[in-house]
Structure formats: structure tokens, C-alpha cells
Structures
1.
Amino acid sequence: MAQQEGPQRRPSIHDVASHAGVSAATVSKVLAGVTTVRPENAQRVFDAVELLGYRVDPLASDMRRAKRRIIGAIMPEFESEFFGQMVTELEGLAEQRGFTLVAASSRESETREKEILARMHDWRVAGVVLAPVRNEHGPAAAFMKANGMTGVLIDRVLSDDAFDTVSADSAAASAEVARMLIGKGHSHILVIGLAEQAATVRARLEGFRAQALALDPSVRIDVITSEVSVEPLRSSLRDYFARGERPTAVYSLLLKGTLVALSEFRRRGWHCPNDISLVGFDDAEWMQVTWPAIAAVVQPVRQIASEAMNLLFRRVEGAVGPPTARLEPCQVLMRESVGSPGSGPHSGGGDRQMPPLS
Amino acid sequence: MAQQEGPQRRPSIHDVASHAGVSAATVSKVLAGVTTVRPENAQRVFDAVELLGYRVDPLASDMRRAKRRIIGAIMPEFESEFFGQMVTELEGLAEQRGFTLVAASSRESETREKEILARMHDWRVAGVVLAPVRNEHGPAAAFMKANGMTGVLIDRVLSDDAFDTVSADSAAASAEVARMLIGKGHSHILVIGLAEQAATVRARLEGFRAQALALDPSVRIDVITSEVSVEPLRSSLRDYFARGERPTAVYSLLLKGTLVALSEFRRRGWHCPNDISLVGFDDAEWMQVTWPAIAAVVQPVRQIASEAMNLLFRRVEGAVGPPTARLEPCQVLMRESVGSPGSGPHSGGGDRQMPPLS
DNA sequence: TGTAATGGATAAATCGATTTTTCGCTGTTG
DNA sequence: CAACAGCGAAAAATCGATTTATCCATTACA
């Protein structure tokens, strides 16, 4: 109620200083918690701060330091639950440490990814959490390296020779999926994915294949991948089914693939798990309310975010040493979309009231 | 290849100035496009910029101006497709204008919302796009008002006496849903929602009710709302069904409600649209691949984002005048989850191979 | 020829903090 | 009593840009 200035200009440190009858330097020290200030002066500073409603301008405050209290986050997209949660977590963790998070979406484009990174470099961010579009060997990581930026790579990475990496343990999770599917008696399994994300997808694929073959050397594993977008994947899948292939289970290595698989199933009038079983990498809220509920690999978002921030701040504070590559364990949620083969009519629809096509 | 400094310190405007043999002021003018500079000097500046790889430090650049080239965005959450797309759009639009977007999630908390806003005020952001947790009358909007901040309110708002507002035309969309449901012959409809978001939810509810009653005065419309979270809504819904209520259609006023409805349906072994029809406000990618596909109201995210940014920048550039309240038209996607009542067995499951409970 | 107007560029002030240097004062010591 | 150490606080430099004030040459005009 003792406000004297209009809503236009905010009080600066000098306003506080003159109100408290001290210098700006003293105000700065008091607020920074320096103890070599006479208690009565400190009190007058606190009073003035209170009276004026003074708050430090983070922009001005950051001017004089080389590493600013800003963390950049670059995600391939914001539309999925995974990256949405990731940004939420990262933002909270940055805030806890008094940092501001600036997040941007590369929209699955490596070109844009690098542009964003360059802009963050302009801001002299203290560090970057980068979830690369492709993998750890893209132009963005190279840019960071070339410019001596500190950062952590997450999600679509395995390990790097310059940056700490944190990602879900895709291989282990895929192996578990394999155990479960083989355990249910599946002997012909189709794996679908996008090959672009190289390292990660390969890890998932190999983790799955190795475990499946170890448990049942006679298992048949088909693989369909597409290079760029999901549409080619969709048509490949359609062709695959059209030429009579009838796997008893599908394991999708990514969320969009799960959606494609589901829509192709419904196009053919197949139901899970009687006609075919389905497991997808990446969980989503809707998967537990659909009928049937979709089995999925749940990525440990909080752990990845938390570990990434820990590693990042360690580097920001000057830690040296070889980069670490962390793999956080996933959880496999078996739901109704997975069953044993042959327990239901394995044919093209007809026994349902739903129309096979929309 | 002509880099001379290590990856540590970046060149400043003074480095460029000395390389070009001019003053820093001249460099600044050249880069700002001022024409009163001798062409040859301008050229030397450009050459030096090129040679050193100089880029303006946005933080330092913003120091001297009252309104900084930063836009704040506050969303209730990042996990849903709607807000994910919204942030992506807003970020792109801000970037187009040379602004940096700082986004934060209020995590559905008005307290946090205000804290974030205060922090953005500390940054002296030029403007804020606020999607309030509750409605336009919350503490965050009051804070903006009290501090003379410029901003736009979106999504869970209708109109405000201080800020421009942009939201989906919920009422019109709901009226269209009513037309479609009544048109299909539904005469007992349940509407579910969260009452917290007052204005918006009320608009949706009233838009629906008015149109439904206009078309069929004898229609029975039940309403279940919950104040705070979705769990009370779930149990209310469960009670409602448990005491024998059998509406022929459910209209959910929000995405989470759609999920709750779906999970309660499957709990009881009901299938859409034979046992019950379902329409939800807010579309999601998965809704078109499930079986049945879920009918939904699609919000015009791009238009809302674009209009919000237009209005915001108009204000940032000093436009005065009474606030405008925009309503962007939605699209209603009728999908298989909606049918005519009585066209299928209306009872508790038993005719399916899926177990009713997970 | 003297003075005013003008073009083009530099020096200096500014933004709001932090950090380093300097300074004044008190109390101790040789 | 002079020199010195120590403490607090003020003054000044700094961060990297932008903007204003200033200045030096020309050129124009009386």
C-alpha cells in the first residue's frame, strides 16, 4: 500500500540503495548474503527492499557473468506426453536451482535444431539439454562441441565422446518385451520402427531380437522400418499385411508406430489380442482406457530429467572427466492387447458390430 | 577456418569495431540498418562480423530497452496435445518476430501461476500469453493488471475488461454437438465436466443445453461436474451408473473427462456406440485409431495461437483501446463412438471377448 | 571570408546489476 | 606518536550492447 511509483518503472538496486542510505554495492552484498555488512545496514536494506517491492532483474544480474543462469532445452516436439512431461520436469528442476529454462521445439528438423542451438548460444546459456532429432552424431551436437558449450544429450542417444548422455534402457526393455511375447507362445513377430533415430532404434531392435532368439531360436522376426516419416511405414505395413503375412504379435518401437499399427488393424478389422497382439514402446494415458488397453513400455521420464539435470549442473559447476552414459530402466506394462496366439479367431473381422473402416 | 580465439569467449561488438577500424556505435548502427553510414565502413563492418562470426548478444541488447524482446507463455500443463501444439505455435510466432519465448507450466496451480508470472515480470518480458488455470478472474490476471503488464489471455477465458482474450468458441461447438446428438435421436444425455474452469465450462454446458432443448424440449440432460480434480468426477460417474442411470449418450466437456468416461464404460463392459454414445471436447491423435474412433470437438490451436500473438504484439507496439474478446470456431468430428440409441444391445457386456475389467 | 548547416563518425552516458579497487576510520603496536 | 592492520562501505570498473551528445570536416550561403 505504500507504493509510490506507477505501474511503469520498477525500482532498481539504486532506488533501494538511496532509500536505505547505502551504496548499491552494499545492497548487492546484502542480497547475496555476504556477512561483512553491519547488521543495522543490512536491516535497512531489507526494509527498503520490502518497502519498494524490489526484485533483482535477472537479465541485468546475468550480464557480468560468463555463464548465465539460463538453461536451454531442445526437444523434437512438444505434442507427445513424453516430451511434455520432460519439459515440465526440466523446467521445475531448473527453477529449483534458480535457473530459467528456455525450451524450444526442433519440430523433428536437424536444421532447425542447429538454429535454435545457435540462438541459445547467443544467449550464453549455462547449459543445454538436447534431445536430438536423430542421434548423438547430428550437427547440433557438433555445434555444441565446436563452440565449447556444456550440455547433456537425452532420449535418442546411447553414448557420446563429448557429452553426458541419459536415455531409457531401450535394449533391456525390449528384451523384456521379447521374454513376455515368447513366454506367451508367439513365434512370428513383426517389429516396426523408424530407422532414422539409428542408435536408439537399433538398440531396441537388437535387444529384442537377441532375447527372442535366445529363448526360441525358431522364432520368426520380421522388421519393417521407414527412413523419414510415418507414412511410408504405414504403406509398408499395409503391403506387408496385404501380401498375406500374419504375425501373431507386433512390437512397435515408437509411439507413432503404435498408432499406425492400431489404425491398420482396425482397417483390416483385426482385434487385439485375439487376432493379433500389440506392444508399443512409449506409454500414453489413453492406452489404459481403450478397449483393449494397449501394452506399452513406460519410459522413466522423471529419472531421465532428474539425472540429466544433475549431470548438466555438475558440468556447469566445472566438473571435468570423461562423459558418462546413463541408461535408466523402463517398466513394461502388459495390458490386454497382448495374449497368446491362437486363442481367438484369427481372421478378418466379421464377428464384431464395428465397421472395419471408418 | 580463420578462427583465432578458443571456444571460450565470444567476440563482442568492440572486437568487431576494432577489426573494422570503426567505433562500436558505428557497428551497432550498421547492424541496425541505419543508412547514414559510409558504404565502405559498412562493408568493413560486415567483413569483420563475418570473419569473427559475431552475433549480437540478445541479453546485452535488451538491457537498454524497457520492453525486452522476450515473450512469456504460461500454460496449465504441457502433457496434452492441445497445449503442446499451442507452445510449439507460440514459440514459432515469437521467433518470427525476433522474440524469445519463455514457457512455463503452472501445473494446474494458481499459486504457481502467479509465481511464474512474477518471475516473468522480473525478466521485464514484453508480453505474456497466459492460459489461466481457472479463468480470467484469477490472481494471475490481477497481478498482470496491478503491474501494468501487457498480455493476452487464452483458452479458459471468455472476455476480460483489461486484456484481450482468445479462445475456442466452445458454446457454438457444443451447440453443434447437441444438434448432432439430438439428430441421432438421443433423448437422455449426460454431460460431464470440471466446474472449476467456470466461464468456459459453463459456456460449453449452456451452449449445449440451449440448443438441445430448442430442438427437443423433452430431452433429459443430466450434468455431473466436479470441483477440483478428475477423481471425484470418476466416482460421481461411477455412482451415477451404479444407481441405474442409463443415458444414451455422454458429452464430456474436457479431455480428461473423455478418458474417465471411456474407462468407466470399459469397467461396465459397455461399448460405443451400441451401448452408449460418446463425444468429447478436445481431440487427440489416438482418438482416430481406437476402436471405435472417438468423436471429438477439435479446437483451432493454430488460429488461437496466431490471433493471440497478433493481439499481443499490437499491444506491445503500443496499441490502445478496449480489449477484444475473440472466439475461434471449432470443428466437430463425428466418429464411430456416436450412433443412434437402441441400434445395439443396451446392456452390460457379455457378448464380447474382452474382459470388462483389466 | 566568415558563419551556419550538414554528413559521418566517435566519445560518453545508459541499462541494472556484480565485482574489484579505493578510501576512511578505528584500534593496535613498536 | 607514527605506522599499520582490519573492517565496512563507497567509488569505480565491468558486462555488451544502444542511444545521445559531441566533434570534426566539408559544403553552402550571406
2.
Amino acid sequence: MRAHASVLHLDLDAFFASVEQRDKPSLRGKPVVVGGVGGRGVVATASYEARRYGVRSAMSTREARSRCPHAAFLTGRFGAYREASRQVMAALREVSPLVEPLSLDEAFVDLAAADLPDLEVDTVTGVADRLRHRVAEATDGLTSSVGLASSKFLAKVASDLDKPDGLVVVPPGTETELLRPMAVTVIPGVGPATAERLRRAGVTTVADLERVPLEELVSLLGKAHGGSLHLLARARDDRPVVPEREAKSVSVEATYDSDLSDVRVMEAVLTRQAADVARRLRESGASGRTVSIKVRLHDFTTVSRSSTLSSPTDDPGVVARLARALLAELAAGPDVGVQLRGGVRLLGVGVSGLADWVQEDLFSSLEEPEDDEAEDLPEPPRARQGSAFAPGVDVEHVEHGRGWVWGAGRGVVTVRFETRESPAGPVRSFSLEDPDLRLWTPEVPEDDDPLA
DNA sequence: TCTGGGGTCCTAGGACCC
DNA sequence: TCTGGGGTCCTAGGACCC
């Protein structure tokens, strides 16, 4: 918590719906609902006109239609939303270099990093007011709500207090007074499950929460969650505004209007999703070691399976093969297998454990292995390395190791090892001499293993 | 025919290593 | 002969957020 109200939170009002109304004048002043329009769709954003009929985010589109049949129901145009978001973030960066986007329509701005004469309430209020007008100007009329406070938590609470098109400042020193009468659900991280647990413990307001000892919160909610709630209930929040966070996973999933029951169709879906995920990985210059699938059964139970490769991949074939293998593993399972054939409503593929490794880093640190070291490496090393994959190259031979090299074509591949000393003992790693190849060393079926 | 899609973070248990 | 504890990695699931 800072001495000044120098954390700004900006939230675009009914963002997706507002973009639609901006771009299509006939929708202005009318209820607009953006979201899935299929049989299993949900509402992403409802315009304020639609909210008057009780339409809310995350509500099923079916219910939204029954509440407000005359609304315009639209699927999202994410290209337009991304463009508007880009304009907003650029406007925010004109004020301060420290801008942390939370999503397309929300961001924190650290005014302490801005070029201002001081951080007094009047000064930052003026900045915030001009910023809202600048955002409207940059986006051709989108309105936003802004909160200013001494921490991220309070700034976000504040931006919610006067929606839409509002500006609320929490003067330093008044934070706890503002929070105490509020419901615990204003605290980020308190969703339905946590709120219910707290309610059973007699806690419904922040003031109630403040009276619960730390040990009790930890035993109720776990170490991390209990600890953070104990702090936030007292308005204690020192989280910095952090621009540019690295993505940790990439995934694609889809819910189908009617359940899938043919495993071959599911495999085809996973293959296509794997290609989408791999394409997005490549576009962002990233690759990841853990491939996961997600399966939601007809009764809404959700199961996931994952497998971790010894080196990162962004290869659509590798991701697809592993995804299908994970599905096959599920289908063979005694419990899930039966249900799988009973119908699957959602399928998804993800890659996590992202590392946007740079080839130079790998090969520059490489040293020629000692002869006896090479002899002493019967097991596949637990490698953390890989290299970009070039189609059109094949592999006939791998020295010093067991694994698969993905490719198609002809050639000879040499796997190089190095052993480095670390405080934890020797660390083995490997790489390929050809930087355009990739070695993969997970468990491979014997009859499928070219090196067995 | 209730219940999206894209993420993040946490927990808990088991394997494995020192 | 019996008994260890800590750290890291991996997996599965759950809660939460926009």
C-alpha cells in the first residue's frame, strides 16, 4: 500500500457490446448480447440496455434469449476488439510506461512511474479524467470506468463503484473504512466456493473477515489463499504493476452443440486443435514441453491428461500425436472409457511449460563431451533442450542416446551430450548437432521405437 | 438441451534424488 | 536394522478471473 493514490485501474464499459454499438449505429440504445449463439453458448458481454432485462455475463444464451428476446445476439468479432484494445493500451502508455493489461478491456497503470509534478489526489484525479477522454477519443467513443487508489486491489474495487463512465478515487487512509461494509466477494479470489466456505464460518463482509485469525483462515482455505485474504481484508496489497508478462500456456478448446461419441471424430478434432495450438506457439516464438488434453463428458464432469516431453515442441504433428495418445489412454481406462462413448461435449488441447528458448543459447554453451562420459550415458538424459524443427530431413542414425528424432527425409544425426557440475550434482543435457532437428525422448512404444 | 473459451494459480500425492 | 527429511518434478483436479 502506497502513501498516494497512484495506482489506476481502467475498465472499458460493456466492452464487446460497446464495440458492436459503435460500429453499427442501428444497435445504439438497444439491448446487445455478445457471446456464443449456439445451443450451448453463454453470454460474454451484455450491453447496459440488455442488463436491464437481467442479462448477465456467463449466463447461458438460452436464458438471455428468454429474458430479452428482442436483443441483438451477436458472435464476437475479436479482431475488432483486439484493435480497440490496442488503441486503449497505447493511450494508457502515453501517460505512464508502466501499463499492465489484465485482459482486452482492463489494465492497471502506475502513475508513480508517470511524469507528474506530484501524486496528490487532485493531480491524479485530473490525470485520470483526461485519460478517460483520451481513451474515448482514441477508440472513437468507447467509455470507461476508472479507479484510483493506493493499491491494485483498491483501484479495482474503486473502478467498479461508479459504472459505467465513472471515476472514483480512494483517498489514502480511507481504504479500510471503504472496504469493511462490503461483501467478501469484492476480494479478488473469493468466488462462489470460497464465499460459501466463509459464509459457513459466519463471514459475509470484509469486516467479518478482518476478525478471523490468520491460522483459522489458513486451515479453512489453505496457506496461499488464507494468507492473501488475511492481508487483503486489511487493505494490505503491495503487488507491483508489472508490464509484459510471459504466457505460460496456450490452449484451444471447443464445446459442441451435440455430444461427440465417435472416437475417430474426437481424434480428428484433437488433430485440428493441435495444429491451432502449434501455429499460435510458432507465431509467438514459443514452445512447450507439456501437452494436455481436456475432455468434458456429457454429465459435465471434466477430465484432463497430460504428458511432458524431454524437450519443448511447437510441432503440430508432435502435439497431435501426443494428444491422440492421451485420448486413447483415456478411452482404454475402465471408468472414463465407458463414459467417453456415452458422449463428449468439450474437447481441448493445450501446451504448457512454455520456454521461448533461443538456439544460440543452447549451442554456445555446448562443449565437446569427454569420451568416457559419452560411454557412461546409457539412459536418455533429462534434457531441457531442443531446436527448431525443419520438415524434409530424416534420420537414420542417432549416436549416444535413445530417442526419436522427428523429421522426414534423409540424413545422419549426432546427439551431443554435456555434463555440467552444479551445486545439486552433475547435470546432463543434450542437443543435436543439426540445429534444424529436434530430439524427443518420452516413453516410446517398443515396436514404434526406431532405436529399440 | 442449464453451464464458453482463454487463461492463472494452488494443492496434494507420488516418484526420485541427495 | 531401522528410520529420515527436504527439494524438485510431474500429474490431476479445482477455484477463480475476464
